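Quick one: structure for this chain?
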Amino acid sequence: MEIPQAIVIGAGFTGVAVAYDLAQRGMKVTVLERGPLVNGTSGRTHGLLHSGARYAVDDQESAIECIDENLILRKIIPQVIEPNGGLFVALNESDMAYRDAFIQGCADCHISIEELTPRQALALEPNLNPKLITAFKVPDGTFDPLRLAMGFAASANAYGAEFNLFCEVKSFILDGKGNVNGVEYLDRSENKIKELFSDIVVNAAGVWAGEVAAFAGNIDLPIKPTPGVMVAYDQRLCQRVINRLNEPGDGDIIVPQRKMITVGTTSFEADNLDYIPVFADQVQLMYERGCELIPAIKHTKERGAFMASRPLLDSKTKGNSLTRTFKCFDHKETDNVDGLVTITGGKATTMRLMAEKTTDLVCQKLGLQVACQTAEMPILSYRKFHMAHNQEVA
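Got it. Here's what it folds into:
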C-alpha cells in the first residue's frame, strides 16, 4: 500500500500540530507556509495557556476544551510553559454581579478555582489594585509562542514531515470533477511556481482559511476574522495572569511574559487581513483598562503595541461573543469538493485537539485506521526543529 500524501497549508499553531498528527499516523506530510513559522496570528498572541475560566459562563464547550488541553500541554510540552496560574479580580459591583455565574460555570466545566480575600490576593500580587473586592485563583498559564510551534514542528520532522517556508499557495490543482488533487504554489526562495500533488489537502490557514478554500470554487466558510490590539509594557508587574471578573470585554486580561506584561485585547472587524493598523484609541483603551487592574502600569514604558486577528467562527453575532471553539470542514460534504479539509477557529491551547479531530477526519476519508497518540507522547525540544531546518537549508 502506498503511503498517503498530505499537504498542510499554514504553519501556525494549528498547521504544525496537524502536520505532527498526520505524520505520526504514517502519512507523508508537506507543510506550505507563505512566510516563516508562526507568520500570522500565532506569532502575535499574548501567550496565554487558557484555563477555560474566561469562557465558563457563556461558551462552556470552549471552556471544557481549554481546561482539558491545558492539562495535556503541561504534560507533553512543559519546557515551553510557565505554569504560573491566574487570578480573576473583581473591582466593582458590576464585577461582583458576575461572581455567582462564574463560580457555577467553572464548576460545570470542571475548572478548579479558589476564592481569595483581598489581603490574600494582594499577598500574591502586590501590584493589584488595592481596591479589589474579591479574586479567584484559576489554573491559567503562559507559553512561549515560537517555541511552542517549533516543538510540534520538531516532532513532525521526526516523523518525516517537511516544512517548506516562504511558499505561498496560489491555487488548487483540480481534476475534471472539481476535486482537489494538489496545489500550485510560489516558492519565494526561487521565485518559481511549483506543483505538488497529494491525496488530501488540509487548509489550516487561520484567518485566511476562507480565502484559501475559495481557490476550490464557491466555498463560503463561516469565519469572522476578528482582530484585536494588545499593548506590552516593559516591567513584569505581575507573576500570574490577571483577568477581570466580568463578561468578556476589551482589555480584560494582563499576561506576564519574561520581563514584561501584555494588556489585551480589543475586538473589531476588518476587511483587509494583510494590513490591519494598530489604532491609537485602542492602545489608549488598553492602557486605561490595564491601569484599572494594575495601577503601576502608569509608571511603566510602553514596549510596543501589536495586533492579532483571530479566526472566530461566526455565530451570527459580533465581537467578543463569537464562539471560541473550532470546526473541521469536510468540503466533500459541505461543498461537494473532495480532497480538501479545512480546520479553523479554536486557539493555541486547543491546537493539539484540533489536530486530532482533523486527522481523525482525514484518516476516515482515506480509509486508515490509526489511533491518535499525541495526548500521551512528549513533544521534542523546539531546538530540534531549528537544527533540522538549518540542515535542510544547507
